Amino acid sequence: MKISGLLTSAGINIGLCVLFLSLYSVLRKQPANVRVYFGRRIAEEHNRLREAFILERFVPSTGWIVKALQCTEEELLAAAGLDAVVFNRILVFSIRIFSLAALLCVFGILPLNYFGQDIHHVRIPSESLDIFTIGNVQEYKHIARLRLHHHTRATPNLSHFTVLVRGIPKATKESCSNAVDDFFTIYHASSYLFHQVVYKVGKVQKIMTGAKKAYKKFKHFTDTTVDHSCRAISYRCCLCGASSNSFQLLRTGLEQNQGKSDLQDSSLKLDDQECAAVFVYFRTRYAALVASEILQTSNPMKWVTDPAPEPDDVYWSNLWLPYNQLWIRRIATLLGSIIFMLLFLIPVTFIQGLSQLEQLQQRLPFLKGILEKRYMSQLVTGYLPSVILQIFLYTVAPLMILFSTLEGPISHSERKRSACCKVLYFTVWNVFFANVLSGTVISQLSVLSSPKDIPVQLAKAIPGQATFFITYVLTSGWASLSSEVMQLFGLIYNFVRKYILRMEEDTEFVPSFPYHTEVPKVMLFGLLGFTCSVLAPLILPFLLVYFFLGYVVYRNQLLNVYRTRYDTGGLYWPIAHNTVIFSLVLTQIICLGVFGLKESPVAAGFTIPLIILTLLFNQYCRNRLLPLFKTSPAQDLIDMDREDERSGRMDEIHHRLHSAYCQFHDSEDIPLEKIQIVGRGGDQGSSSGKSNGKETSEESGVELSHPTLNGLPISRLRHAVKSITFLVRLQKRGLSG
Amino acid sequence: MKISGLLTSAGINIGLCVLFLSLYSVLRKQPANVRVYFGRRIAEEHNRLREAFILERFVPSTGWIVKALQCTEEELLAAAGLDAVVFNRILVFSIRIFSLAALLCVFGILPLNYFGQDIHHVRIPSESLDIFTIGNVQEYKHIARLRLHHHTRATPNLSHFTVLVRGIPKATKESCSNAVDDFFTIYHASSYLFHQVVYKVGKVQKIMTGAKKAYKKFKHFTDTTVDHSCRAISYRCCLCGASSNSFQLLRTGLEQNQGKSDLQDSSLKLDDQECAAVFVYFRTRYAALVASEILQTSNPMKWVTDPAPEPDDVYWSNLWLPYNQLWIRRIATLLGSIIFMLLFLIPVTFIQGLSQLEQLQQRLPFLKGILEKRYMSQLVTGYLPSVILQIFLYTVAPLMILFSTLEGPISHSERKRSACCKVLYFTVWNVFFANVLSGTVISQLSVLSSPKDIPVQLAKAIPGQATFFITYVLTSGWASLSSEVMQLFGLIYNFVRKYILRMEEDTEFVPSFPYHTEVPKVMLFGLLGFTCSVLAPLILPFLLVYFFLGYVVYRNQLLNVYRTRYDTGGLYWPIAHNTVIFSLVLTQIICLGVFGLKESPVAAGFTIPLIILTLLFNQYCRNRLLPLFKTSPAQDLIDMDREDERSGRMDEIHHRLHSAYCQFHDSEDIPLEKIQIVGRGGDQGSSSGKSNGKETSEESGVELSHPTLNGLPISRLRHAVKSITFLVRLQKRGLSG
Question: What GO MF annotations does this protein's record show (chains A, B) (predicted)?
Answer without folding.
Answer: calcium-activated cation channel activity
